[in-house]
C-alpha cells in the first residue's frame, strides 16, 4: 500500500527537508505541497491525499483554517515547532488526528504517517496528556511562574511576541493584526527592550523557553 501525502508549511526549506526524508520510504508518495492556507486548501482538495502533514502556525489562520476548509477525506497530522498545550488542543478540536513536533526523526515521521493513515491517533506522551486533560475538564496549562519581564509586556506586545516567535515577518504580523508595519516595528523594539534581548533570534529562543509561540 502506498500512502499519498500532502505537505503544508510556510517555510520552503523545511518542506524540502521533509520531502527528502519521506521520499526515501518506498510506501510514501508526496503528491503536493503548499506554503499558504489558500494554496493548501486548493491543493488538498485537488490532490485528495491520504495524509496531510500540517504546519500549525502560518499567516491567515494557520493549520486550523486549513482543517476547517478542506473537504472530507484526508487524515491530518499536525507537524509544528510548538509543543504548547493551546496549539495542540486547537488543532485536535479542529479535526487533526495527531500532533508531533519538528524535532521528530524522518523514520519516526514516516511511521506516524502510516499510523494515522491506519486510524491511530499519534502524539508524544506529553502532548497526549494535554489532550486528555482538555477533554476530562482539567486545565491543560500549568500555573505560570512569576516572570517580571513577561508580565511587563502589554497585550499587544505579547501578540507581536507570539507571532515573532512563530517566524512571521513584520509585514505578515501587520496583516495578521491589522496594524501598520511601522507599528509592528515599534512593538518589536519595545519587546526586545523589556525582555532584555539583543536581537530577534535571541528573542525567539527566549520565547520558546517560556513556551510562547
UniProtKB/TrEMBL annotation:
<dbReference type="Pfam" id="PF00072">
    <property type="entry name" value="Response_reg"/>
</dbReference>
<dbReference type="InterPro" id="IPR000792">
    <property type="entry name" value="Tscrpt_reg_LuxR_C"/>
</dbReference>
<dbReference type="InterPro" id="IPR001789">
    <property type="entry name" value="Sig_transdc_resp-reg_receiver"/>
</dbReference>
<dbReference type="Pfam" id="PF00196">
    <property type="entry name" value="GerE"/>
</dbReference>
<dbReference type="GO" id="GO:0006355">
    <property type="term" value="P:regulation of DNA-templated transcription"/>
</dbReference>
<feature type="domain" description="Response regulatory">
    <location>
        <begin position="4"/>
        <end position="117"/>
    </location>
</feature>
<dbReference type="InterPro" id="IPR016032">
    <property type="entry name" value="Sig_transdc_resp-reg_C-effctor"/>
</dbReference>
<keyword id="KW-0597">Phosphoprotein</keyword>
<feature type="modified residue" description="4-aspartylphosphate">
    <location>
        <position position="55"/>
    </location>
</feature>
<keyword id="KW-0238">DNA-binding</keyword>
<dbReference type="GO" id="GO:0000160">
    <property type="term" value="P:phosphorelay signal transduction system"/>
</dbReference>
<feature type="domain" description="HTH luxR-type">
    <location>
        <begin position="146"/>
        <end position="211"/>
    </location>
</feature>
<dbReference type="InterPro" id="IPR039420">
    <property type="entry name" value="WalR-like"/>
</dbReference>
<dbReference type="InterPro" id="IPR011006">
    <property type="entry name" value="CheY-like_superfamily"/>
</dbReference>
<dbReference type="InterPro" id="IPR058245">
    <property type="entry name" value="NreC/VraR/RcsB-like_REC"/>
</dbReference>
<protein>
    <submittedName>
        <fullName>Two-component system response regulator, LuxR family protein</fullName>
    </submittedName>
</protein>
<dbReference type="GO" id="GO:0003677">
    <property type="term" value="F:DNA binding"/>
</dbReference>
